[in-house]
Amino acid sequence: MTARNQGVRAILQSIIRPLILVSAALLAGCSLEQFPQSTLSPHSNYARSIQSLLEQLTFWVVVIFVVVMGLLIYALVRFRSRPGAPEPKPVHGNTVLEVAWTIAPAVILALVAVPTVLTIYHTQGAAPPGSLQVKVIGHQWWWEFQYPSLGVTTANEMHVPIGQPVEVTIESADVLHSFWFPIIGGKRDAVPSRSNRLWFTADTTGTFPGQCAELCGISHANMRMKLMIEKPEDFAAWVALQQSPPAAPDGSTEAGKGKQIFGQSACIACHTIQGVSAGVIGPNLTHVGSRTSIAGGIFHNDEEMLARWIQNAPERKPGSLMPKLDLPPDQVTALVAYLRSLR
Ligand code: CUA
After folding, report:
1. Second label for 59, Cα 20 to 30 Å away, from 129, 181, 221, 278?
2. Is the CB of 137 within 6 Å of ligand 1?
3. What's the Cα-to-Cα distance from 177 to each of 94, 218, 342, rounded to whole Å?
């Protein structure tokens, strides 16, 4: 094989290899099981609009890529240097060529800009009347969800009914955060003393992960959340449970002792349990036992993790505002029993 042929081969390989890598990456991104936060698995009208835009743009990009690379490869092979070949003719000053390569990029930019702007208008308009209102507040490092029309406040787990538009108002209690459930659609910043919003209609039931997408301090990576998309009757049952008064265990039980300890400890300064305490710095615990996770969605909500969390939160989550409590083990057991009873 001549050195020239090897050169042509190297150029072809340098074009084909990245193509194969990109296709593999795209295929891998399609599985929600493998990559639960994939942006390529839309489950709302908003995310589907973005997906459709991505597909349109990818189509045009592939067409342009194939045409340009085809012409390039043709030119490389057809006009390669041969012994005794004449000097190539310069194209400088060719009016037809210059007009053509001015118009072609303008057409390509229009192909990108028109669907993009249309999608922005389509997804960023006002939410339909009758949308479920959810207020999201980013905290270092957990998410608060309020449903003002339903009188419900919860943390780290957002419940919505399938098929009903949901308007989310996004705020921050301290620093910049970013609200992001990949299956809903785009990210939206949570900015102190300002409200951002987005709306979506979920179209698949299930539990989907999300997380803060703006560097917000030492536990930024520990600021996660879950989206529970439920059938309307399941959502109504969840709302009814959240609206009910909290459990009031009898004083003779372990949970009852825990309630007493809770009422006499530092817990009440930061946490609300309806009818028991009114702190607003940490998550509302009125129905904490009904949640699947604690501590910004990073731990399972079970006896063991709750006990470890209560004993020494900063060890489990760097920078945690909840201090190391160092309570006697029997008090921790009682507190855990009480919190678990708050279903
Ligand atoms: Cu909040 Cu990162």
Report:
1. 181
2. no
3. 54, 13, 29
